[in-house]
Amino acid sequence: MDEPAMKQLIANEVQNAVQSSHNFMFSRIDTLMNNKIVSFESSMKESQKQLSDSQIAKIEELTTDNYEFGRKSNKKQHKINIKIIKKMKEAQSHLQDNPMQNEQINSGTKGISEVDPTDNNFAQLESSKRQEHSPKVKKDIIDSADIVMLYEKYTNSENIGVIRDLVMIC
Question: For residue 89, which of 78, 99, 100, 81 has the smallest C-alpha distance?
Fold first, then answer.
């Protein structure tokens, strides 16, 4: 073989080696870019779901807050219950989106679901925590004969408090 043919053969081999190297590098870059795009799409989908769930919870809060109550305490309790439910829904959506299987998280979600404020058991639990009140003692009814007897008993008293009480009774 002559020298120009040899140079041409070497140049073709080098060009083929460079071309295959470039093709391999481009395929690796393409794979890397596709993986990054898929990862970005999944993270965007996750954040959009979380945002959507929190917005749905806020919309539900706005639409369910139209109750009228006779007592102010009932209205306050209802607002507290709505806030608790909203926070529970937001926490539940965040826990469902992040698949962390931690023992504490699982026990916490179980505890939250056990104490649901919309359930009657929650009211029974809260009422059982209250202390028993002593029974009310009814006062005796005083008639006019009792007033006359008190007047006669304390007429000569020099205690200003007793005299004031007698004046207020009579």
Answer: 81
